[in-house]
Design goal:
The chain is built from eleven helices and 20 strands. The protein is α+β, with helices and mostly antiparallel strands. It has three domains: 202 residues, no CATH class; 65 residues, no CATH class; 97 residues, PH-domain like, CATH 2.30.29.
């Protein structure tokens, strides 16, 4: 006689209790830090849903929690959060986020979402999987549509506006300004079940689309441009370059072009005309530039050199430091990490985490590069994707 295997209980009462105890402190701190107006939702409070949100700040999950409190949501989170040893174990015990591998098809993450749904839990995630660097939405994974259909829950589309103005992904400071977070629309299962996956995905993208260049508002701080070099590495005057920022000015170190970041999110030239009114247009130009780049021209001469800390990550377990102050060199077909040469042909994925970290999925190993405060990890992912697109003879997606 066979014994049925008992399904592990993911949804637990203690998660709701812990959130209830911490909520007053977290929510007060969040409001003070981000000056946000969160519109509470009766729909999210009273019934189980799958919540999809656009992704602008590192605290978007708290905005969703504030809108639906006291109901608890199980957030889908990057695997890097689960490789921090004791802290990761504490997070798992306290709120049980659902781990996912970025930029990959993660079957286990889908299975965990289904398990949470069957146990009555609300699931929340950002289809973009990445915070915007430019103020425009990032790439949205089409796999979100079949996942929503499998879950079969009411679909709550949660919009966050003003987050890029308050704290761009590349910045360390919060500006003085205003944000808004609210449930934009709820779609019932019977209203989306007959849509094709493509139609549902297009609907999700449309309803979550937020263009921060069109968001009126003023965001004040003396360091408005500081660390913009984490996102930008192509100069419209001289091409591939390195930038340095200070206060509200960012300067190209190759041609000395200076750009000022203004309180309304616009940018303007200081010592000459600048062709782009917003970072979003500059960022689009950067992508176009890279998509025209011949990576074969950089097989002997490196595109960039950096100094960073290199670790090896055991997913969902720990990180092991391999080398501090290691020389990191980017070529057109490979990475040189200290003494390790990693050819792009042997790399599955390169992803950018947070502000200055890069994950390199190489064969069976996962390496993490963490640079200093001015480190631009985006160029590593972009150049890698450009190489892969060249090899395939098609495509212009640069990883985000």
């Amino acid at each position: 006689m066979q014994t049925k295997t008992k399904t592990k209980q993911w949804v637990k009462t203690r998660h709701k209790v812990i959130i209830g105890l911490l909520a007053p402190f977290i929510f007060l701190w969040t409001r003070c830090k981000y000056h946000i107006r969160v519109e509470k939702s009766r729909e999210l409070r009273k019934r189980q849903c799958v919540v999809l949100m656009n992704h602008q700040t590192g605290f978007d999950q708290f905005f969703v929690s504030m809108a639906m409190f006291p109901r608890h949501a199980y957030f889908v989170a990057s695997e890097d959060l689960f490789s921090l040893g004791t802290l990761s174990r504490l997070l798992r015990w306290a709120v049980a986020p659902i781990p996912i591998k970025k930029q990959t098809t993660d079957v286990q993450a889908v299975m965990n979402c289904l398990r949470v749904a069957r146990q009555g839990g609300t699931i929340a995630l950002a289809p973009e999987g990445n915070r915007t660097f430019s103020g425009l939405p990032c790439y949205s994974n089409p796999a979100i549509a079949p996942l929503v259909k499998k879950l079969g829950l009411p679909l709550a589309l949660f919009r966050i506006e003003g987050g890029y103005g308050i704290q761009p992904r590349w910045s360390d400071v919060c500006r003085k300004g205003r944000m808004r977070a609210y449930v934009h629309k709820i779609i019932e299962p019977e209203d989306y079940k007959n849509l094709t996956n493509e139609e549902l995905h297009e609907l999700i993208q449309k309803e979550l689309y937020v263009d921060e260049t069109a968001n009126p508002g003023t965001f004040r701080h003396k360091k408005l441009a500081e660390y913009l070099e984490r996102a930008m590495y192509v100069c419209p005057d001289c091409g591939l370059s390195v930038f340095h920022s200070e206060n509200d000015i960012i300067t190209c170190k190759t041609c000395a072009k200076q750009i000022r970041y203004l309180p309304d999110n616009r940018i303007q030239g200081v010592n000459g005309e600048f062709p782009f009114p917003y970072v979003a247009q500059w960022y689009a130009y950067q992508n176009d530039y890279v998509n025209q780049l011949d990576t074969n021209a950089y097989l002997e001469t490196p595109l960039y050199r950096d100094v960073a800390t290199i670790s090896e990550v055991e997913p969902y377990k720990k990180k092991t430091l391999l080398e501090e102050n290691a020389k990191v060199t980017l070529y057109g077909n490979r990475l040189q990490l200290g003494k390790r040469t990693l050819f792009f042909d042997d790399i599955r994925v390169i992803t950018v985490l947070g502000k200055n970290k890069v994950n390199v999925y190489h064969s069976d190993a996962l390496y993490q590069i963490k640079g200093d405060a001015r480190f631009n990890g985006l160029k590593y992912m972009n150049i890698f994707c450009r190489y892969k697109n060249q090899q395939a003879g098609q495509g212009d997606f640069l990883g985000i």
